Amino acid sequence: xxxxxxxxxxxxxxxxxxxxxxxxxxxxxxxxxxxxxxxxxxxxxxxxxxxxxxxxxxxxxxxxxxxxxxxxxxxxxxxxxxxxxxxxxxxxxxxxxxxxxxxxxxxxxxxxxxxxxxxxxxxxxxxxxxxxxxxxxxxxxxxxxxxxxxxxxxxxxxxxxxxxxxxxxxxxxxxxxxxxxxxxxxxxxxxxxxxxxxxx
Length: 200
What we know:
The chain has 10 helices and 2 strands, in the order H-H-H-H-H-H-E-E-H-H-H-H. The chain is mainly alpha-helical and 200 residues long.
């Protein structure tokens, strides 16, 4: 039975003297709970201040740049995901740092995809030993050809209207649109020995 219940029972039974003796214990317990709650809030505020330090912000940005989820970042910080969400809303510095880290990764991936789609040239340095035993440094340019898969991915995402798989024609009926799509499917998936019945 908790102290408050004991107090109610004591009053109900007419044992006012016992109830009066329980009041200081009850007040003491309330003070302890308030102290713990203030300490908990103080610890959280102290912790958020710690993560606003420049070195900690760099760490946050690095985690975001490495592609960690918010849940993983919160775990690394020693806090819960809900707390991290609250901090992002409360502190624009934390929110901006995480956003900046994620943008860097997005740009790097975008640049790598574009580079792969267009093709590129790299220099390879080699050392060769001739028949006399002399070492020669050789620099060779090697071309990495464009990757058609990267090109398709880029175009389908950047120019959706022109490069999507299923093209819809707006000036024709849905029946005509379906017929056009059927013809396109036949052209894209040729089969040997196809008869006229297959096409109709």
